[in-house]
Amino acid sequence: MRELELYVHIPFCVKKCDYCDFLSMPADESVRRHYVGQLLEEIRQNAPVCKEYQVSSVFFGGGTPSLLSGGQTAEIMEELQERFQVRQNAEITLECNPGTLTRQKLALYKTAGVNRLSLGLQSADHRELQKIGRIHTFEEFLESFDLARKAGFSNINVDVMSALPGQRTKDWLYTLKKVLELRPEHISAYSLIVEEGTPFYERYGEDELRRQRGEVCRDLPSEETERQMYELTREILADHGYLRYEISNYAKPGRECRHNIGYWQLTPYLGLGLGSSSYLEQARFSNTRKLEEYLKGNWNDLAEILETVERQKGRADVSCGQGELVMLDKRAQMEEFMFLGLRMTAGIARKKFQKLFGVELEGVYGEILRKLQRQGLIEQSEGRVFLTEEGISVSNYVLSEFLLEVETSSSE
Ligand code: SF4
Questions:
Q1: Hey, what CATH class is 2-264 in?
Q2: 64, 94, 96: which to mutate for ligand 1, most atoms within 8 A of CB?
């Protein structure tokens, strides 16, 4: 039976953080209730189309999924369990924010089958938390972490963020130290990206451009400091038994996030909820990003989409867009295989490339691989290709080298 991952989007937050460009917004209880009702309908309508798939992971992301009541989350989980074939040992993750968890909620998550929590901390420093517009304190995070452990959660990720405005290397190391004291099973450590359209862009957009040009910045840490933070993170976490398995993700052995690994390995996934993306039958498509549309029941009709995909299949080597549906031709799939797979420290397997695409990796990317290897940015051994440390530090450049020329045409 084919493997499928499910992503469930809960787009609500208490308040928007200043750096955030995710699809999330505050909403009152009645909107949240209406949303859950529609989400359940979407599951009921689309799950039967996935009869041939077995679900290996479920990821509740957001937004702040823990803003829903425990009962609402349990209801969604029940619907998923009933309508999809969810494997016994499926990884079921729920993203939570400090200040939104209670003992009762955690107990309901547990009963509903959630077996992994991802807690958004970002910083252990109160001033930094305020600066980036987070609603919680470090103490509230500690309380939530403790509650989660007491509720029996033995697989917890903590999200932290480096390169914050005004942050010095020693400030960042303080956050890492405080997180390590808790011994979570997994740590995601991303650098701040100043995204357009956020309050942060207004404040730090110019500084970000200066940083990209390698110039002295006013508030943001310089490129060099950012790199130093990254390298220290890897060293310190390795000393504490966390293996880096992806550019920004570290885990105790065996605690890597299976859902994300599936995503980087091009496992099919179905997104449910507002704006969620899917990758099925070599096609990418997304739900509407407009909340009012979603609340009216205007989500994707999966059966209809897969029929369209089937019709488009004859157009093998053409990439075409239809609304929010994009067919990935072979070239686009090869690109995705390379630039998602190379994010992982284990890199990609030549044999898998050959099996998936029926051609040798060398035949498609031979010249690029040789060039990147000469530059010391990739290594090749035991049938695998992976980024070197130097390659990771300029990963955007390296990954962009795997883009092939693709013809694009639109269909009605
Ligand atoms: S809690 Fe997460 S999703 Fe919500 S606004 Fe903050 S960063 Fe964005």
A1: alpha beta
A2: 64
